[in-house]
């Protein structure tokens, strides 16, 4: 998912999407362990998407905190 698309999401949507991706990551780990994983590049993509979403969510929370202090 592109950063532009992620930035358009609300914090609740970001949290839900991160949870969904973590579940998918969990399933991919099991598939790799049992030798059933076909698309190995998906593991890397999921990991990067999770990091991207967490980073943008942290930036949004920091911006909200700064706006609330003003």
TrEMBL record:
Assigned GO CC terms: cytosolic large ribosomal subunit
InterPro entries the record matches: Ribosomal_protein_uL29, Ribosomal_uL29, Ribosomal_uL29_CS, Ribosomal_uL29_sf
Gene3D superfamilies in the cross-refs: 1.10.287.310
The entry's keywords: Ribonucleoprotein, Ribosomal protein
Segment forming the signal sequence: none
Pfam family, one: Ribosomal_L29
One annotated GO biological process: translation
Coiled coil: none
GO molecular function: structural constituent of ribosome
Family indicated by similarity: Belongs to the universal ribosomal protein uL29 family.
NCBIfam families in UniProt: L29 (TIGR00012)
Protein name: Large ribosomal subunit protein uL29
Source organism: Pseudolabrys taiwanensis
Gene this chain is encoded by: rpmC
